[in-house]
Amino acid sequence: MTRSLTDGPAILVGYAYRLQIETEGPLFPEGCVLQAQIRVKPSAEGILAELSSADGSLRRLSDHLLELTIPATATAGMPVGHVVLDMVRRDVTPALPLGFVLELPVMLPVTRGLS
């Protein structure tokens, strides 16, 4: 499978974040159950946020397209710099890592503290 890296939007601390992920291969078949954890780095013990298809934060749009959403409550606790996440299919046994890692920049917005 060909891999490519495309610059996307940074996570702004305290604001909701949304990203669409498009893949060359059919990584998101109908009925798949997905889960992801966001950490400061892969070796970090602490989890900053958990995303899943069950809670709607990972939403399959097609076999090749997924929408990832991180709520503002989760981004509020993220450190400035970057965070990482990968994704696992939980509808198969054993659970199947999808084979990619995203490194997302995290920035402190100028306009903040709004409710």
Description:
- The chain has 115 residues and is mainly beta.
- It has one helix at residues 72-75; strands at residues 11-12, 17-22, 34-39, 49-52, 58-62, 65-70, 81-89, 96-107.
- The mean pLDDT is 92.
Strand content: 35-45%
Based on CA atoms alone, the radius of gyration comes out at 14 Å
The CA-CA distance between the termini, in Å, is: 43 Å
What percent of residues adopt helix (DSSP H or I)? under 10%
Low-confidence stretches: none
- If you average the pLDDT, what whole number results? 92
Tell me the structural class. mainly beta
Strand line-up in the sheet with most strands? 1-8-7-3-4
Largest beta-sheet details: 5 strands, mixed
Query: What is the count of β-strands?
Result: 8
Summarize the structure.
This protein is mainly beta and 115 residues long. The chain contains 1 helix and 8 strands; from the N terminus they run ββββββαββ. It has a 5-stranded mixed sheet, with no helix packed on it. Strands 2-6-5 form a 3-stranded antiparallel sheet.
